[in-house]
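The passage that follows is intended for readers who have already worked through the single-chain material. We present the inputs for a multi-component assembly, then the predicted structure in tokenized form, and finally a short commentary. You are encouraged to pause after the input and sketch how you expect the pieces to fit together before reading on.
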Amino acid sequence: MIKIDNLSKSFTLHNQGSAVIPVMQGATFEVAPGECVALTGNSGAGKSTLMRMIYGNYLSASGHIWVGETDVATAEPREIIALRRATLGYVSQFLRVVPRVPTLEVVAEPLLTVGVDKETAFAKARDLLSRLNIPETLWGLSPTTFSGGEQQRVNIARGFAHDYPAMLLDEPTASLDATNRETVLSLIEEAKARGAAIIGIFHDAPARDRVADREINVSDFTPARAA
Amino acid sequence: MTIQPLLSVKDIRKTYGDRVGCSDVSFDLYPGEVMGIVGESGSGKSTLLNCMAGHLPPDSGQVLFDTRDRGMVDTLTMSEPERRMLSRTDWAFVHQHARDGLRMGVSAGGNVGERLMAVGARHYGNIRTQAIDWLDRVEINEDRVDDKPSAFSGGMQQRLQIARNLVTGPRLVFMDEPTGGLDVSVQARLLDLLRGLVREMGLSAIIVTHDLAVVRLLADRLMVMKSGHVVEHGLTDQVLDDPQHAYTQLLVSSVLQV
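Having made your guess, compare it with the prediction:
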């Protein structure tokens, strides 16, 4: 489902003496449907960079990122938009929403954009919000005023609303209490069971051991630093 | 994917004497896409928008639009009546200052109804019902339908302008700093409204702004302009999160974090 082929990336900082920082080289691996692969490596090794490249947030210098039929490394913006809408989900660590939109709509939105009818979309959103213990009294309010933990759970609910065939999870269990952590792990297991290909970053080692089938050490793709 | 672009802009160039307004601008916009154009003042973004919308004649280039009856037509060489019809039906233009896009001496309902009448609506009752429906969609209370826009707040005027523009169900909306000059809570409300309308109506839009937060929330794609040229173009979050050009890097890093 996801196939990374000889991927490389460097950052050029034009306003800091045009410093060129190579951050990735020769990244190659595959993720099959129903499989969860955990990215490991020290902080700064490039785990998040790789995730963002797969999502199309960061440009790739060379190589390919196949997600289904789309090569994110070379696709047109509108192809990436279509891919994100239907195929590739991303649960980041931050919730970014239009102010004033009620939580229930924030969660249902990914379903509405793929054309699911309102009733079904809102039913799924309600179900996810209850599973993640967001009190019903908050559903009609914008999540911008929620606590950090609540925002993160809303973000997870939104990320799992649509059954994406491929998913990227950036620290999905960080700062969750035991009950909610358990719910998130079940959501990941359910996604795997329906055949989603998942790439995740988990600093929570027991969580990683439970859901990940394999680990990929991103340090293997870090270019040797020229002194 | 073999979807036809809705708008295809080719090599637009506009100069003011020796000064370059904008130059070598080309891009395709597809149905349902929202594109942001950012850059500092004087970068040529408003010149470009006005050239595309037919408010300014460019020195050279083409602005091809997928018309309902004739397919792709260069709007710059269209006959004047045809272009006027287009700007009343399939196109809409939201000005930064609502008073430039509204008739200040006509009631709110009249402002919305006027555009309907321009495309042939004649039944007073229907026009009024539709006007009230649109005022409701932009969150202006029905009891204000007979008030003149001069009695409205800035945010309300802007929402009224949007209602007036969208009532005829356009396919392409040009927006020039639609949230400029509004206080932040009103901005948020307007952004929410615009996003909902874009999704429900499948609109395509081109939004000129200097506010990067606005484009992040509204635009799928982003074009960065400097000194009349496009220096960078891509997916909005990619351009903002991994800017490639020196100017974009400076622009992104200059934004104050809230």
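Commentary: Chain B has a mean pLDDT of 89. Chain B touches chain A at residues 1, 30, 33, 188-189, 191-192, 195, 199, 216-217, 220-221, 234-235, 237-238, 241-242, 244-246, 249-250, 253 (CB under 8 Å). How closely did your sketch match?
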